[in-house]
Design brief:
With 588 residues, the protein is an all-alpha fold. It folds into three domains: 48-214, Clc chloride channel (Orthogonal Bundle), CATH 1.10.3080; 236-279 and 314-352 and 360-499, Orthogonal Bundle (Clc chloride channel), CATH 1.10.3080; 515-574, no CATH class. It has 23 helices and four strands. The strands form two sheets. It has a two-stranded antiparallel ribbon with strand order 1-2. Strands 3-4 form a two-stranded antiparallel ribbon. Helix 6 (123-145) packs antiparallel against helix 7. The N and C termini lie far apart (95 Å).
């Protein structure tokens, strides 16, 4: 299309375009255009290729630097152990920096894109992302209101952020708050309670509302739909088997926590793996991912582990209330070319292996494969994998019971078929609760499925599993803190602090600087200027000092006797003493 031209009134007759004629400041625009044309002629006199080559080099240098910068700043793992350390009063540099947000999102997206190959989730990273945003919004609020920084308010936002992180993954606000209380905080103030519930409810509501807007759901429903019987979901004798399932999950969790922690230590001290992790993290990640992908290849061993299912489909299939063992006792369903959304349980069946064989093989393989996956230095969550592992454990027990009692267990003259899906739900809550040392996983199971018919047996299974796990092993997150050597007070297993015959007087520093009421001003100035202390707190307590450090997030405290300062205790000294108590050094 030809450009329209015209004559300006009073001009010499030279035509101009209508854009110049009607545009603002035509003379200035023509001058700028002329200047740019002159500059183009001068610059491109040496050849325009050189400038494009220079631009290419500069851009690639910027991209290279940015990638290196991001890789250095990516916070690996779940992030919950570091958050526990921060809430205990220790400052970790750059952990809550909003600049890490984009790198964490990109890394987590890549992790989730692998599906069930690497078998990792997103709960921990979502908690980290939520806490990052909470910390950033807290700083924005402080600058907006002009108030000074308040550490107590900052911790309130962080705890609420942790609750939101869990709630937005499972659409479970109640268990999200309780999980943040149990796992993230050593002590929880009542003032934070309603704040966490408010934020978690808003997050869970929006998460499910988006599913409705995206036409995935007709209305706001639970994340995983189940069809358990409501009138008689289980018979009274089954309570015993649910408790046994809890004990099995507790024993398995102890084995898993021990092996996972020991393998992490091995990877750190082994000369080959430690060198790879120090200099070639992408290579280590690629080798580990290649091994896991080779094993889970569907036409190969993956055929016996339902590897074609996603992690969400794993749960959907395991929560099925029908007995697969009874359904395949007299028939052999075909293995579809693609997973059937209406019959996902077909992926768990193999004519030579049977349902019991595939579930057992899945548990044996995923036990060590999940441990290996936790060593890969990528943003990933570890709660959902252990939740699925527990569901598979419960499913196996439920299938065995349904096969042993095909008509159900007789109770009061009536029989009701056993629902293996109920055992899968109980196993998921029990094993994940034992690994994380939390009871809120029982409530999470109810919120995820929208049914509470198995409330009593699931809670009993979770309590049994926790009783065993907490007696013998630290939680998954505490174990990670131990392996990473994060600055966190060691865990005292014994509930009675008085059972340890070590008191503050045995290890406190008795050489301290004090200020008396009647001290002259000159001496006060001399004392203050000769020390680096910013404040002089006085604490009078007859307790081993552990509760004070843990509850008040202290770094040091002073010990007094009848108003007289007799010593001081630092956080480092207390940590050393507790470590010697829990892990006594070998005699020389």
């Amino acid at each position: 299309m030809e450009e329209l031209v015209g004559l300006r009134e009073g001009s010499s007759g030279n035509p101009v375009t209508l854009q110049d004629l009607w545009g603002p400041c035509p003379r200035i625009r023509r001058g700028i255009r002329g200047g740019l044309e002159w500059l183009k002629q001068k610059l491109f006199r040496v050849g325009e290729d050189w400038y494009f080559l220079m631009t290419l080099g500069v851009l690639m240098a910027l991209i290279s630097f940015t990638m290196s910068f991001i890789i250095r700043r990516v916070v690996q793992g779940s992030g919950i152990p570091e958050l526990k350390t921060i809430l205990s009063g220790v400052i970790l540099e750059d952990y809550l920096d909003i600049k890490n947000f984009g790198a964490k999102v990109v890394g987590l997206t890549c992790t989730l894109a692998t599906g069930s190959t690497i078998f990792l989730g997103k709960v921990g990273p979502f908690v980290h992302l939520s806490v990052m945003i909470a910390a950033y919004l807290g700083r924005v609020l402080t600058k907006t209101t002009g108030e000074s920084e308040n550490k107590s308010k900052q911790n309130e936002l962080l705890v609420a952020g942790a609750a939101v992180g869990v709630a937005t993954v499972f659409a479970a606000p109640f268990s999200g708050v309780l999980f943040s209380i149990e796992v993230v905080s050593s002590h929880f103030t009542v003032w934070d309670y309603w704040r966490g519930f408010f934020a978690a409810t808003c997050g869970a509501f929006m998460f499910r509302l988006l599913a409705v807007f995206n036409s995935e759901q007709e209305t706001i429903t639970s994340l995983y739909k189940t069809n358990f019987r409501v009138d008689i979901p289980f018979d009274l004798p089954e309570i015993f088997f649910f408790v046994v399932l809890g004990a099995i999950c507790g024993i398995l969790s102890c084995a898993y926590l021990f092996c996972q922690r020991e393998f992490l230590n091995f990877v750190k001290i082994n000369p080959i793996t430690s060198k790879l992790l120090a200099t070639s993290k992408p290579l280590y990640s690629a080798l580990a991912a290649l091994l896991l992908a080779s094993i889970t290849y569907p036409p190969g061993l993956g055929r016996f582990m339902a590897s074609r299912l996603s992690m969400e489909e794993h749960l959907d299939s395991l929560f099925d209330n029908n007995s697969w063992a009874l359904m395949t006792r007299n028939s052999s369903p075909p293995w579809p070319t693609e997973p059937d959304p209406q019959n996902l349980w077909f992926e768990w069946y193999h004519p030579q292996f049977t349902i019991f064989g595939t579930l057992t093989f899945f548990l044996l393989m995923k036990f060590w494969m999940l441990i290996l996956a936790t060593t890969i230095p990528i943003p990933a969550g570890y709660f959902l994998p252990v939740f699925i592992f527990g569901a598979a454990t419960g499913r196996l027990i439920g299938e065995i019971l349904s096969f042993a009692f095909p008509e159900g267990i007789v109770a009061g003259g009536a029989t009701n078929p056993i629902m293996p899906g109920g055992y899968a739900l109980a196993g998921a809550a029990a094993f994940s609760g034992a690994v994380t040392h939390s009871i809120s996983t029982a409530l999470l199971a109810f919120e995820m499925t929208g049914q509470i018919v198995h409330a009593l047996p699931i809670l009993m299974a979770v309590l049994m599993a926790n009783a065993i796990a907490q007696s013998f092993q630290p939680s998954f997150y505490d174990g990670t803190i131990i392996v990473k050597k994060l600055p966190y007070l060691p865990w005292i297993r014994c509930r009675k602090i008085s059972s340890h015959r070590v008191i503050v007087e045995h290890f406190m520093n008795c050489t301290i600087t004090t200020l008396a009421k009647d001290m002259p001003l000159e001496e006060v100035v001399k004392v203050v200027t000769s020390t680096d202390l910013a404040e002089y707190p006085l604490v009078e307590s007859t307790g081993t000092a552990h509760n004070l450090f843990e509850l008040l997030n202290l770094q040091s405290l002073f010990v007094t006797s009848q108003g007289r300062a007799v010593g001081s205790v630092s956080w480092v000294e207390l940590k050393k003493v507790i470590s010697n108590l829990t892990n006594p050094p070998a005699p020389k």
